[in-house]
Amino acid sequence: MRSPLLLIFLFFSFNVFAQQNLRGRIVNEQTGDPLAYAKITYGDKEDLSKIDGSFSITLTKNETQLSISYVGFETQNFKVSKDVEFVRIKLTPKIESLATVTISSEKNKANAIIEKAIARKPENDPEEKLQKFNFKNYNKFIVDNETAALEMASDSTNLEIGTIINSAASYFSEKVSRFYFSQADGLKEEVQALKTAGFEDPVYEILSLSVNPFSLYDKDFRIFETDYAAPLQNSAFRNYSFKILDTTTTSRPAYVIYFKPKRQRAVAGLEGVLYLDTKTYAIQQTKAQLLGAIKLEIDQEYKYFPDENLWFPKTQKITIRPGNGDQAISVFGGVISTGTLQKKESILNNILAPGRSDPNLFLNVTSTNFDIQLNSEESLESSAEILVKTDANSREDLFWKENRTEILSTQNKLSRQRAERLIKEKEVEEKISFQKSIATGYYPVGFWDFDLGKFFKFNNYEGIRLGFGGKTNEQLSKKFSLNGYLVYGTKDEVFKYNLGTSIHLNKTTETDLKFNYTRDIVETGSFNYLQGKNDFSIIEPRFVNINFFYEHRTLSSGLTHRFGSNFKTELRLSKSNIYQIRDYSFLLNGQEFSKYTLSEATFSFLWRPFAKFLKTPNATKLIEKGYPKFTGQITKGISGIGGSDFDYTKFGLLVEHEIKRLNQSRTEIILEGNYATGEVPLTHLFHSLPNSPRRKGILRRFSVAGRRSFETMFYNEFFSDKQAMLHIKHQLRPINIHRLIQPELVFISRHAIGDISHPERHSIPFKSLEQGYHEFGIELQKILVGFGLGAAYRYGPYSLPTFDENFAFKFTFHLDI
C-alpha cells in the first residue's frame, strides 16, 4: 500500500519544487476597478485575467519577464522571481487607438464588428451553412475536491477510507459519442461508450444534462438549468455592451472583443471575450465567465477548415465552483452533494440541502470534437435526440485508448478512484434509485413501491380517505408488475380497491399488457386521459370540494406502446357497472336508468413532436419537454356487448403550449375541446373543471387554485356534450425581494363555451355554456416556499348579481424540486 502512495507523493513533490504558481490581480490605478481579460505575456505563452482581474500562471524559470497590456492603458513590463507568490498590478489609463482595426464607422467600432459578425452568421454558423455534418466527441465529466489529491499524497499514514468519505463530493464519467447534424433533424447524438465510476448500472441521467453548448451562435444556450443570452444573437445590443481589447497577430488574425451583460438581473448573460476572424467575422475562440452564486468559466476553441472557409467548434472546457451564494455543486439534484447548481435559490433548497459548500469543490467538463466530417451524407436513424448503443457500457480498454483525445492525468485517476469509493460507501446508486421513485410519486420499500397519493386525501363525500397502494418493482420481477390499492372513506364508510397487473412485453417500446379490476368512485362529468396524466401530486385542489360522484365496478384490459420516441399510445377495453350515489336517472326511450352497464373501447395518445428524448437500450426518457404537446382520446361505447346499455362516441383533445423567455417570464396556453354524440348519461358527459364550492361568503369559498380549473365556476353548475376551453397564463419575471424570496406575479384569462343536445334526458337541472363563460385571475405565486395567493373574477353572460358571488380568493401552490 505504501509504495504506490510514496510514488504519488514523490510525483507531486517533484512538480511542486519544479514550478511555482504566481497569482495576481490587475486593476485600474486610478479607480481600483479590476481589469477583465487583460493580456498577460510570459515567455512564449499568453493568458488573460478573469472578470475580477485575477489570474494564475505557472512559472518554470527562476526569473520570468512579464508583460501586462490592456486597451486604453499603458503596458507594464517587469521581471518576477519564482519565489514570488502574489502580485498586484496597477495599470495607468492612456488614450490609445487600435491602428489594426480598419472598420470605417462613426459608431462604436466594436459594435460595428459585432454587427458584421451577426450579419455573417449564415455563412459562419455550421448549423446554418451546412446541410449535414458529423463528428466524434470525447467528453470527461468530473466533480471533485481540488485539495483531496494533495492531502492523500502528502500524508501516507492517513489512508483510511474516511479521508475519501469526508470529501465534499466526487463523480467521474467518460463518454465517446458521434454527433450527426442535418437541417431536417438538427443535432443528434449516438453514445458509443460510457463509463461512470462507482456505478454498477449506467447513469444515463448524466447524458441529459445540458452542459456543453455546441457554439455561441445560438439564440441562447443552456448550461444545466439556466438559459444564457448568446452574444451574437439578433438582440445582442439590448443584452450586451462591447469593446475592442486587441487584435491577434496569428496567421488568421482576430479581433478580441470584450462583451459584458447590460441587464444581468433581467436576462442571464456571461462576461467574456470573442475572438472574431478579421476576414470572415467568424468565432475563432471564446472565453466567458460568471461570478455570483457560482463561478462559471467557459473556454471554446474552433478549428479552421480552409476548403469550406469555416471555423468549426473543436474543444470546450467548462469549470464551475461555488461562488458567493454558498451553493454546492451537485449532479443529481443534491444526491452526490448538498445544494443545487444554478437553480434559483429558495427556502426549500436550504431546508432540503442545509450546510455550506466546500470552497475547494469544483465541477469540470472537457469536450473535444474529432474526426469531423463536414459534408458527409451519414445520418442517425433515430427519433430520439440521444441514442445509447447497446454495447456502450461494455467497451474494452482498447476502444477507450483509441478514442480518448487526452491521456488521463494522475489527478484524473485519483478522482476516479475517489468517486468509486465514495459512491459505494455512501450508497449513492441506491439514493438515486430512491429519488427516481419519489419523483414519480412512489416510496420504495423492498420489492414494493408505495403510492404516495393513496395514503391520505379528503373530499366532501368520503370525508377523510385513508389507505395504501402501489406496485411491485424489479426486485420481484423484470417481466411483470402487480399493482393495487385499498382505501376507506371515514364519512361514507365504504372500502374501495383496485387490483391489476402489467406484463412487460417489450421494455424498449414500453409495450405493456394490462389487466385491472377497480371498485371506486369517479366525479360525475370528468374526462380523464389515459395518456399524458400525472396521477401523483402533493395537493389535488379540486378533489377536496367535489360532492357529485358515481360508483363504478370496472374490469379492463389494455395495451400500451410507444411509436418512436414522441408518440405514446394506449388501447383499452373495459366493462363498467355504474351505480348512482346521488338521486340521478338517465331518461331514454321511456325508461329511467339509475344503474346501467357500459362497454367501452378507448384509444388514447400523447404526442410530443418538439420534445427531446434519450433512448437507452431499455427505455425512452424525456430530457426536454418541448411545446406544443398534444393529448388525445376517443372512446366508443358499444351497446349490446357484455350487456352494455348505451351506444355513444366521445372525443377529447388537449393542446398545451409554453413560451419561456430569457428574462424568466413565461406564457402558458392550454386549449381543450370535448365532444360526445349518442346516448351519453350525465356521468359520462363533460364539465369544465369547476373549482368553487357553492357557499355564501368569499372566505367560506376559500380553496386552493388548480392549474386549468375555473376558479369562480361552481361545482355541478354546467354540463355539456360539446365544449371548448382556453386558459392563458402570463408570468412576469420573478420579483427579487431577497435571494430566498422571489415571488412571481401571474395574470390569467380563462374562457369556455359549450352546449348540451338533449337536456331532457337528465333528471336533474343544470346550465349549458352556450353563451360563453369568462373569468380573469391574478396570482402571486411562491411567496413562501411554494405557497402563494390568488384571486379570480367572473364576468360576461354568466356573471352573478353581486361582487361577492363573482369573486374567488385562493391559495396557490407551485413547488419546483
UniProtKB/TrEMBL annotation:
<keyword id="KW-0732">Signal</keyword>
<dbReference type="InterPro" id="IPR043741">
    <property type="entry name" value="DUF5686"/>
</dbReference>
<dbReference type="Pfam" id="PF13715">
    <property type="entry name" value="CarbopepD_reg_2"/>
</dbReference>
<dbReference type="Pfam" id="PF18939">
    <property type="entry name" value="DUF5686"/>
</dbReference>
<feature type="signal peptide">
    <location>
        <begin position="1"/>
        <end position="18"/>
    </location>
</feature>
<dbReference type="InterPro" id="IPR008969">
    <property type="entry name" value="CarboxyPept-like_regulatory"/>
</dbReference>
<protein>
    <submittedName>
        <fullName>CarboxypepD_reg-like domain-containing protein</fullName>
    </submittedName>
</protein>
